[in-house]
TrEMBL record:
<dbReference type="Pfam" id="PF02852">
    <property type="entry name" value="Pyr_redox_dim"/>
</dbReference>
<feature type="active site" description="Proton acceptor">
    <location>
        <position position="447"/>
    </location>
</feature>
<protein>
    <submittedName>
        <fullName>Mycothione reductase</fullName>
        <ecNumber>1.8.1.15</ecNumber>
    </submittedName>
</protein>
<feature type="binding site">
    <location>
        <begin position="181"/>
        <end position="188"/>
    </location>
    <ligand>
        <name>NAD(+)</name>
    </ligand>
</feature>
<feature type="domain" description="FAD/NAD(P)-binding">
    <location>
        <begin position="4"/>
        <end position="326"/>
    </location>
</feature>
<keyword id="KW-0560">Oxidoreductase</keyword>
<comment type="similarity">
    <text>Belongs to the class-I pyridine nucleotide-disulfide oxidoreductase family.</text>
</comment>
<keyword id="KW-0285">Flavoprotein</keyword>
<dbReference type="GO" id="GO:0050660">
    <property type="term" value="F:flavin adenine dinucleotide binding"/>
</dbReference>
<keyword id="KW-0274">FAD</keyword>
<dbReference type="GO" id="GO:0050627">
    <property type="term" value="F:mycothione reductase [NAD(P)H] activity"/>
</dbReference>
<feature type="domain" description="Pyridine nucleotide-disulphide oxidoreductase dimerisation">
    <location>
        <begin position="348"/>
        <end position="457"/>
    </location>
</feature>
<feature type="binding site">
    <location>
        <position position="48"/>
    </location>
    <ligand>
        <name>FAD</name>
    </ligand>
</feature>
<feature type="binding site">
    <location>
        <position position="115"/>
    </location>
    <ligand>
        <name>FAD</name>
    </ligand>
</feature>
<feature type="disulfide bond" description="Redox-active">
    <location>
        <begin position="39"/>
        <end position="44"/>
    </location>
</feature>
<dbReference type="Pfam" id="PF07992">
    <property type="entry name" value="Pyr_redox_2"/>
</dbReference>
<keyword id="KW-0520">NAD</keyword>
């Protein structure tokens, strides 16, 4: 049994913690999969590379409104896939090589295997050949992430399916793809594959896609999506089977009774569950809540002194920028135990990189109502700002919620071109307490650029006149 000062489980955001400041510490890093975790290998980064490529592929279909006639001549899927992973796989390999062999990591031992707590501050790691090592440590960082949820649909396991872990490495594009789910992953991949000419059918249990968004965004996005691919709403998939010709038949319950669908491939995208169950953290006294998340306090520490957790394993926000923020907090608290800092989850933004893009921060209108806060709302269409004219945009808009007395922004929701970028000044204003009036009139807004959307949305807020 080897004892360490620190053991980090998971090399997603957990890997960023150990640097030269830990040179005097005896450290172990445990990773069962590919170095770099979900975001690099199977999440944010490759998906956005596919999304950008899909945006390019979708351009000709919308070009004629500018008087430009373009034609999409073809999609070279293997080339797209290999370009993307040809960039990503070497980064993961270099990360692993660095930790295993670079002299910077002389104090770091890497265990390539699956860790599981077997006692108080005692972890058993099983490597890929089934060999086990037992290690103990004064401190642990639990950064083991999450995995796709697989719903209990009859016949699904035997039929076979893809998740976001595998769909990006397909050998060839299917002719027909069903996507089960209507959240982030479903909306992003529906855009990718439909733009590449695949016949996509998205199967949603809910009445709208992206039901976590502000209701206006969710309903308007759903209408736009229905113009691009098939969206089956209020459909519950109950059975799947593989047919002799290799295709897949799905049975669904829907408001009209039952329906069947035949496709060539199936992507399951119905959420992600934390990997805490596989880590057995209870053996070391770490609590797990009813959603399966490791419970932490505001310092990211679990119930056990010296055991910290971060990212998808513990957070209701399964987002990389949150995992990164929490990793920075954990790193500080490990190094400065007498001056610990708290993580800041006040204004966590997110973006859905679909088409049109969606970005959001703060309260939705329904949440503001449920919380009984005093608020006013403004809306601004892209179609009514100069850059929106240039883009001939007809569907995009920004919606802001603010406190009418103070002008403090409470929520911002944008659907339209570059929403993920356009929202950033609003995140900044909310984070630093800048009120809507000062934000709108205390700075120049470049004319005629896209952020004029925000300037106008701010000016549209029916705030109490300033003294
Ligand atoms: C398709 C997709 C697209 C996404 N796009 C975005 C996006 O655009 N923007 C965004 O903010 N977020 C996005 N996310 C979410 C983001 O990827 C995650 O929130 C983030 O990667 C979580 O980081 P983490 O460090 O908590 O976990 P991970 O990066 O998942 O790292 C956990 C690591 O722990 C290892 N591990 C797990 N269990 C064990 C064990 N028992 N022993 C040893 N090792 C173990 C795993 O192999 C993994 O490498 C996306 C996710 C998906 C699936
Ligand atoms: N751009 C980004 O930041 C980004 C992109 C992808 C993923 N992510 C993260 O990964 C997480 C997981 O993404 P996701 O899309 O898998 O989950 P999600 O939680 O966003 O959406 C899952 C959806 O599937 C529905 N669902 C659940 N069970 C179902 C069933 N049996 N049949 C049909 N629908 C069902 C749910 O009602 C929900 O609407 C996201 O919540 C997000 O935090 C982020």
């Amino acid at each position: 049994m080897t004892h360490y000062d620190l053991v980090v489980i998971g090399t997603g955001s957990g890997n960023s913690i150990v640097n030269h400041r830990f040179a005097d510490w005896k450290v172990a890093i445990v990773e069962r999969g590919v170095f770099g975790g979900t975001c690099l290998n199977k999440g944010c980064i490759p998906t956005k590379m596919f999304v950008h490529t899909a945006d390019v592929a979708a351009t000709p279909a919308g070009s004629s409104r500018y008087g430009v006639d373009e034609e999409l001549l073809g999609i070279r899927w293997p080339e797209i896939r290999d370009r993307i992973f040809g960039r990503i796989d070497p980064i993961a390999a270099a990360g692993s090589e660095y930790r295993h062999h670079n002299p910077d990591n002389a104090n770091v031992t890497v265990y390539d295997g699956t860790g599981r707590f077997t006692g108080v501050k005692e972890l058993t790691v099983e490597d890929h050949d089934g060999v086990t090592s037992v290690i103990t440590a004064d401190r642990f960082v639990l950064a083991a992430g999450s995995r796709p949820v697989i719903p209990p649909i009859v016949g699904l396991e035997e039929t076979g399916y893809h998740t976001s872990d595998t769909i990006m490495r397909l050998e060839e594009l299917p002719r027909r793809l069903a996507i089960l789910g209507s959240g982030f992953v479903a909306a992003e991949f529906a855009h990718v594959f439909s733009s590449f000419g695949v016949e996509v059918t998205l199967i949603a249990r809910s009445k709208v896609m992206l039901r976590g968004e502000d209701a206006e965004i969710a309903s308007q996005f759903t209408e736009i999506a229905r113009g691009k691919y098939d969206v089956l709403l209020e459909h519950e998939t109950i059975r799947a089977t593989r047919l002799e010709d290799g295709s897949i038949r799905l049975w669904m319950l829907c408001p009209d009774g039952k329906e069947e669908l035949i496709v060539d491939d199936l992507l399951v995208a119905v959420g992600r569950t934390p990997n805490a169950d596989q880590l057995n953290p209870q053996a070391t006294g770490v609590e797990v809540d009813r959603e399966g998340r490791v419970v932490v306090d505001e310092y990211q520490q679990t119930a056990v002194d010296g055991i910290y957790a971060l990212g998808d394993l513990t957070s209701p926000y399964q987002l990389k920028h949150v995992a990164n923020h929490e990793a920075r907090v954990v790193k500080h608290n490990l190094l400065e135990p007498d001056h610990r800092i708290k993580s800041d989850h006040r204004f966590v933004p997110h973006a859905v990189f679909t088409s049109p893009q969606i970005a959001s921060v703060g309260l939705t209108e329904a949440e503001a109502e449920a919380q009984g806060v005093n608020f006013v709302v403004s809306r601004q269409k892209y179609a009514d700002i100069a850059y929106g004219w240039a883009m001939e945009d007809t569907t995009g808009f920004a919606k802001l919620l603010a406190d009418p007395e103070t002008g403090q922004l409470l929520g911002a929701h944008i659907m339209g071109p570059q929403a993920s970028t356009v929202i950033q000044p609003l995140i900044q204003a909310m984070s630093f307490g800048l009120n809507a009036h000062d934000m709108a009139r205390g700075q120049y807004w470049i004319h005629p650029a896209m952020p004029e959307l925000i300037e106008n949305a701010l000016l549209n807020l029916p705030l109490k006149p300033q003294e």
